[in-house]
Amino acid sequence: MKDFRLLSTRQQNMLRFMQRYTQQRGFPPSIREIGEECGIGSTSVVNYNLNKLVDAGYIERSGKVSRGLRIIRAIPGLSDAKRVLGAMSQHRVALVGRIAAGEPISLPEDIGHHIEEDDYIMVPPRLLGGYDASEAFALTVRGDSMIDAMIKDGDIVILRRQNTAENGEMVAAWLPEDNETTLKHFFLEAGQVRLQPANRDYEPIYVPPANCEIKGKVLSVMRSF
Asked: Which one of 62, 89, 134, 145 is the catalytic residue?
C-alpha cells in the first residue's frame, strides 16, 4: 500500500472529500461531485485519479454501480475513520425508474424485474430499515407533492417490496386502469382508497381498491446536495 504522503495533492483532496461526504450523508459522492469539489472539469481525469487510489490501496470501485466507491483504508488526519469506513460498507439496490410525487406517471407494472447491472445503486445498511437488500428497490422522485414529508424532486426513495400497507404509510401505488403509479400516503376508508399528497397545493387521489396495487413501502430517502 502506498503511503498517504506519497499521493498527489489532488488525490489526497479527493480522498478527504470522499470521507467527509460519506460521513455527512452515509453514502459516497458521484464522479461529477468529486470533480466539482476538487476543481476537475473532466470525468476522465477524475476516473484516472480514482484508479490510482485503487492501485494505492485506499479505495475499491464498482464501475457498473452508481456511486460505486468504497474507502477501505483510513485517511490520516481525519476523525471518525472507523465510522466512515463502516458507512461505506453498502448494499446494491436496483434503481428501477422514476415515480411521480405529483400527478401519476407511467412505470412498468413488473417493477424491479429485468434490471441491468448498471441500474444498481449503493445504499448504506441503515437506509434499509433492517430489511435485506434483496427486498428493496429504489425510485427517483419526480414532482413536489410530497415536499411536506421532506421528499423533493430528484430525491431517490428506497422502498421495501410489499403488496399491502397500513393507513398512513407512504407507498408506491400502481393504478392498473390508468397504467400509472404514484408516491403518496395510503389510506383505506369508506370502501375506497385515498392516496394523500403531503403538499397543500395537491388534491388527494381517490380510487376503488381494485384500481390500487401497492408495490412498495418507503423506507428512506437519499438526496444529493
From this structure: 145
Tell me if residue 170 falls in helix, strand or coil.
Answer: strand
The helix (run of H) or strand (run of E) holding residue 82 is helix 81-87
Instruction: List the CATH code of the domain at 4-87.
Output: 1.10.10.10
Spatial neighbors of 125 by CB under 8 A, at least 6 apart, are 89, 90, 91
Q: Which CATH number fits domain 91-222: 3.40.190.10, 3.30.1490.20, 2.10.109.10, 3.50.7.10?
A: 2.10.109.10
In the annotation, is 217 catalytic? no
Residues 142-159: tens digit of each pLDDT: 889 999 999 999 899 999
Cα-flanking dihedrals φ and ψ of residue 46, to 5°?
-60, -50
Q: Exactly one of 42, 134, 152, 184 is catalytic; name it.
A: 184
* Residue 106 annotated in active site: no
- What's this model's pTM, rounded to 2 decimal places? 0.60
